[in-house]
Amino acid sequence: MERIAIAGNIEAPIYKLLLDKGFKISIESEHWVAKGEDFEAIADNIIELAGIIYLKENKGKNWKVGDDVIDNYVDFLKMNEK
User: Fold this and answer.
1) Could you give the domains of the chain?
2) What are phi and psi of 70, to 5 degrees?
3) Distance of alpha carbon 32 from alpha carbon 5, whole angstroms
């Protein structure tokens, strides 16, 4: 099994991937911004930026979930509290 973890060495590949996808990347007021043709993502770091773009690409305009999914997520968090 291959593993990739959050570390500084994943940021440059993510940056290149987003550029290759056609996004213009900037840092504005301490936020990372990716601007595409018809979509703009804003995050605290490039890893979060990639996650937002992944969500949008896979779910489109209907990226939000219902209360049942939110409840399941909250339950998951509670079960994994330390």
Assistant:
1) 8-79 (3.30.920)
2) -60, -45
3) 20
* DSSP one-letter string for 48-75: HHHHHHHHHHHHGGG----HHHHHHHHH
Strand partners, 35: 24, 40
Residue 15 tokens, joined: 């940056």
Q: Cβ distance 25 to 33 under 8 Å?
A: yes
pLDDT tens, 3-48? 888 888 999 999 999 999 999 999 999 999 999 999 999 999 999 9
Those residues whose C-beta lies under 8 Å from the C-beta of residue 36, and which sit 6 or more positions away, are 21, 22, 23, 24
- Judge contact between 53 and 21, C-beta under 8 A: yes
